[in-house]
Design brief:
36% of the residues lie in helices and 28% in strands. The chain has 268 residues and is α+β, with helices and mostly antiparallel strands. It folds into 2 domains: 157 residues, D-Maltodextrin-Binding Protein, domain 2; 98 residues, D-Maltodextrin-Binding Protein, domain 2. InterPro entries: Solute-binding_3/MltF_N.
Length: 268
């Protein structure tokens, strides 16, 4: 079994975060024999999905799942590169990374350019989220005339853009790259709503007193996949093979419960 090791320091992470750099430190694994290196692009600010813990270690559901996949694929050696979410798709398109892991859902534009593996590894409901004192917004239909925050190029942003256009809403969409900034803007009233997942709302409230609450029914409940370059079908198939083993032996259930607070593998 390969041992995945990281070369990340908390000081470097904090410095890069403070200066707003779009490039963050890589978390790399040691070379193992003739194994083929796979560069994985991921984020560092998606709480409990891919983030730096208090020791400066890259961890979270996506990261720990990929470590388990790596253990089962002796022909590959995984190396992590962290970057801002807005740079991930471009990095995959320009082949600076081989695999993208950031709780990614399918959409038509992405499927035209990239390859998704066949076996989903997650499925979570997306909700409208507001400040706990907000009584005006009870569902997505109440965002007309309001300002909402989304991550650029995210599936949530695509959904909201289409919904606002189709319903002819007078909604201002603010594109925010930093999760902490988005939470602060919601708490201080600079934006009226964001779009997030139940586990993230719970974590934000417990960790930083974000004062958030979910309103309305789920907007999306879609399968989540890893993304690859079109020509990397062999790698995608290998990841699928390992994922199926991890679902069957209960590892996915264990990781989902630990990091996301519930067993989302039942939806797979």
């Amino acid at each position: 079994m390969k041992k995945l090791t990281f070369a990340i320091t908390l000081i470097a992470a904090l410095l890069l975060s403070a200066c707003g750099s779009s490039s963050e430190p890589a978390a790399t694994s040691a070379s193992s024999g003739n194994a083929e290196k796979v560069v994985i692009g991921t984020g560092s600010q998606f709480i409990n999905i891919c983030f730096f813990d208090e020791n400066g270690e890259l961890t979270g559901y996506d990261i720990e799942l990929l470590k388990e996949i790596d253990k089962r694929l002796e022909e590959y050696e995984f190396e992590f590169q962290t970057m801002e979410f807005s740079n991930l798709l471009l990095s995959l398109e320009t082949k600076k990374i081989d695999l993208l892991a950031h709780n990614m859902a399918k959409n038509e534009e992405r499927e035209e350019k990239f390859l998704f593996n066949k076996q989903p590894y997650n499925a979570m409901p997306l909700h409208v989220v507001v400040h706990e004192g907000n009584e005006e917004i009870q569902s997505i239909d109440d965002i007309n005339g309001k300002t909402v925050g989304v991550s650029p190029t995210s599936n949530a942003s695509i959904f909201v853009e289409q919904y606002v256009k189709e319903h002819d809403f007078d909604t201002e969409i603010s594109y925010i790259t930093q999760t902490t900034d988005m939470n602060n803007q919601l708490k201080t009233g600079r934006i009226d709503a964001i779009f997030s997942f139940p586990f993230a709302v719970d974590i934000n409230n417990n960790a930083s007193d974000a004062e958030q609450k979910i309103v309305g029914d789920p907007l999306l409940f879609t399968d989540i996949f890893f993304m690859f370059n079109k020509e990397d079908a062999k790698l995608a198939d290998a990841v699928d093979r390992a994922l199926k083993e991890l679902i069957e032996d209960g590892t996915v259930k264990e990781l989902s419960t630990k990091w996301l607070g519930s067993d989302y593998s039942v939806e797979l």
